[in-house]
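USER:
Try writing one entry.

ASSISTANT:
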Amino acid sequence: MPTPESILKETFGYDSFRPLQREIIEHVLARRDALAILPTGGGKSLCYQVPALIFPGLTIVVSPLIALMKDQVEQLRAAGVPALFLNSTLSPEEYGANMRAVRQGEVKLLYMAPETLVTARIESLLSGLSVDCLTIDEAHCISEWGHDFRPEYREIAAFRERFPNAACLALTATATVRVREDIKRALKLAAQREFIASFDRENLFIEVQPKTETKAQLLEFLSRFPGESGIIYGFSRKRVDELSAFLASRGHAVRPYHAGLEDEARRKNQEAFIRDDAQVMVATIAFGMGINKPDVRFVVHVDLPKSLENYYQEIGRAGRDGLPAHCLLLYTYGDVAKIRHFIDQKTGDEKQVAAKHLEAMVRFAEDTASCRRKPLLAYFGEAYEKADCGRCDHCAGGAQEPVDITVPAQKFLSCVVRTGGRFGAFHVTEVLLGSRSEKVLKWGHEKLSTWGIGAEYDKKQWMELSQELVRLGLLTQEGEYRILVPTPKAQEVLRERTPLFGRLPGAARPASARSRTRSGAPKGGEPLPDFDPGLFDLLRKKRKSFAEAASVPPYVIFSDRSLMEMAGRLPRSPEAFLRVHGVGQVKAEKYGQAFLSMIHAWCQENGRA
């Protein structure tokens, strides 16, 4: 009888379980129901895949997106696991063949969408079979309070009753306390066990920057990630098309993705991204939920997400391999008005929920002092106990010593007063920089004594200073357009010329996660060994050739982490190759000789024999 540990190593090539995986697996093997909340990249899939290979019967996995099913099945089959899916992408012949395989007991894991699950065709298929486990992935979709409610998920509860002896495992990465209670109530899990891992994705560097010159900011950011995969999220189709065309004109391998594209165009663009033929995907939130690409090294939001749940899930698409990744949000309060416009079209509870989600998102973006992880994790009911995470823009490099910012503060506050206390930070900044924008000229602000006196800082730095003055209590932001209003304390600084100490704008900008990618430590694992980038690139090319031959994404063959370990440990024997992270028996038999030969040849050429 195989054990969870033997399956973990021999099938999946991992040496140890991540937090809570072992407990959840044991719980499911005891045929007890459970709700498991694990962060993206936290190993949710193994919690049902390992039991599925121990149970004698079938494990059914309910998954909301076709792309996710296909991806999961490809990865399982590459590891030698008999898995199939049933959905509309299959031809009638393929659908029939898959159903026959299920009926004949040749399948251990069967993936389906919730609407497929409740059809008469599936009821007939499963009527004579032993179903040992029902897994509901993305379980937050069952809750009206979740960020991605899907009514068809509510029908799963009735399906459950047909298989009372099957364990029911509900899984999600994003669920507030209210959503968790809704999931348990809908699936009748109230008396069962709840497993909640930390929501903290330790390998993600979180940064918020004032949005000033979006295109210039993007170009600078992308320059730190040559050859790496990343996602840029925009609010609208027009925004996505514009940024995609701009980045392509600057030589980036980029594809757009949004609901306005033809289905075939979306499919091709997604395939180009997951197969490493395109480096960057510029997309609306229509993209990503079904993507399990582990080597996404950055996620950029050029517009404000609608909620912290959306934001958390979208940044969760970065660094699924446990290696460092960078998450950048470009923020300006003008984005809030766009989202409010859509919220105003809603009614009743839906409008109330959307407004609360937006309010929490704005508080997170405008926080100028706290560790970014504290409000993000608090939203999901988790207290972050550390004083300094070291992996966000506020904590990186330790706290900055306060310096004398009296003169720039006086300039900014004076400009706020002279413009009448009727404008936000962006307009005040434009006046300080001597802009002749339409709005500046309309109000005659080019005639003010503060016009053009701020040449010592750029736009981004003045915006940062405005937030520092809010944090220090010299300004408040009021109303829908976040108008800056001086406080009595500001009057003291202007009238009495009281010295003011704070953080200097632009100082100690956080380093990109890119610099830590090659030598960073995966979450919960040992530090990766040093490795030769040249050999790593050769191994990547070999991996891509195998992937193209098998018509699967490269990460299905081996993850970047596996290749890094190969390029660092330089395994020379089949036994040593099996000790590499992510190398199981089937993959070793299929690809081991080719990779070992390449490593051996490289060692000979470089005097490492």
